[in-house]
C-alpha cells in the first residue's frame, strides 16, 4: 500500500505508513530541531523514536518522511572504540505511545483575552484558542493565523532582524522598531514560563516593559537558561513561578484553559513584582534559600569541575563530605539549584557525580535557536541508555527524558545502585559524545561569538 500523507504543515506533507498515519490523526506535526515532532495537549512526541525505537535516524535525511523504510536505529556498545552501528527495524509495527486526545472546550474569542488594563492594545489567548484569530506568537510555535512570530524556538518563523537568543530580546527589538501588527488583537503562546511571561507582558504593557527592559531580560534568562546573578532578577523570577504555582485550577481542565487561568492571575502582578519586589518575600524566600544552600555546597573546596569543551561536557564531582542526606536524587540536579551549576560552566551537557550516583543533564540552550554563543547540537542519549541497560542489574533502568524535551536527564532508576562505577560511566559517556551524531539542532547556523 502506498504511503499516506499525514498532515499539511506550511505547504509540506508528512509521509507515513498506513498503520502509523491512523495513529496521528489528533497530532499537530511540525519539524523541530530537524526532527518530526507530534504535538498533543501541549506535549511533544518524537515521532522517529516512537515509530522505530530509541536512537532512530533518517535514512534519506528528510524529516517529513517517517515511513519505516526511511528509518533506522543506531546502536552503541560499551567497551569498544566507540563505533555506532545501524540496526534494521523489526518487521512488526510499533503501537505509538500517544496520550489520549483531550478535546478543547468552548474557545474564548478575542474579547475574552487576558488584558492588564484598558490601555492594553493586545490581549492574551493560548495558542490552541487562536486557530481562527489573527495573532502574534510569542516564545512559542505558531499556527495558520499567526501574523508575526517572535520566538527562539527551533524552526521558528521570526523575521531575521528580530532574532535573538531569548524571545524577550526579540520582542524588545520589535517594540523599539514598531510595536504594532495590523490586524492582530491578541498575542499567544502554548506554555507558561518566564521568557514567555516577559514577552507577553511587554506587548500588553510596552511602556512599563521598556522601563524595566534589562530586568525582564534577566528574568527571562534565569527562566530559560538558569543563568544569572542579579538578586533583583532572581527574586522576581522565583516570585513569578510561585504565583503561577499558586493558581488553583478546576478539575479536568484542558491545557489551554489552564494557561488562560495562569496568565490571568500572573500578568496583572508583573509590574508590581518588578517595582516592589520586597513585598513578595514569602514568594521568593524559599527559592533564594535553596539557591544559597546549593551555592554553599558547590563552593566546598573538594568539589571538582572538569570541562571537556571539545564534546561540550562539564563534570561536577561532589565529594563524600557532602552527605547523601544533603542531596535528593529524586529531584533534578540531585536536589540542588540548576542555577548554581549553570553559572559555573557554559558547557551544554552536565554530568553530576556523587559516589555511585550519576545524573546527566542537557541544557535548554541546545534545544532552542541561538544567534550567538557556542554552537550546540544535541546527541540522543537514548542510544547511550540502551547500551548501559544491556548489562545492568535486574530491576535497574537507565532512563532518558527524550531528545525532544527541553532539558532531558539521563539517570539510573531502580533498587540499589547501578552496577557500573562512576569512572566507567564517565569514560563511556565521553567516548559516546565523541562519536554520536547530532540528533537535534535548534540553531541552523549559530555564530562563534560569546
Structure, explained:
By secondary structure, the chain is α+β, with helices and mostly antiparallel strands. The chain has 3 domains: 4-87, no CATH class; 110-287, no CATH class; 300-440, Diaminopimelate Epimerase, Chain A, domain 1. Helices cover 29% and strands 21% of the residues. The strands form 6 sheets. It has a 6-stranded mixed β-sheet. The chain has a 4-stranded parallel β-sheet with strand order 9-12-10-11. Strand 4 (35-40) and strand 5 form a beta hairpin. Helix 3 (167-177) packs parallel to helix 4 (194-204) and helix 4 (194-204) packs antiparallel against helix 6 (213-225). It is globular and about 65 Å long. The termini are far apart. Mean pLDDT is 91; it is low at 1-11 and 445-450.
Write the layout of secondary structure elements.
Elements: E1 4-9, E2 12-16, H1 18-21, E3 28-32, E4 35-40, E5 43-46, H2 47-52, E6 56-58, E7 71-76, E8 84-87, E9 123-126, E10 135-138, E11 146-150, H3 167-177, E12 186-189, H4 194-204, H5 206-211, H6 213-225, H7 231-245, H8 255-266, H9 270-275, H10 281-298, E13 304-308, E14 313-318, H11 338-342, E15 349-354, E16 357-362, E17 378-379, H12 382-389, E18 397-400, E19 409-413, H13 422-435, E20 438-440
Parallel strand pairs: 9-12, 10-11, 10-12, 14-15
Antiparallel strand pairs: 1-2, 3-4, 4-5, 6-7, 7-8, 13-14, 15-16, 16-19, 17-20, 18-19
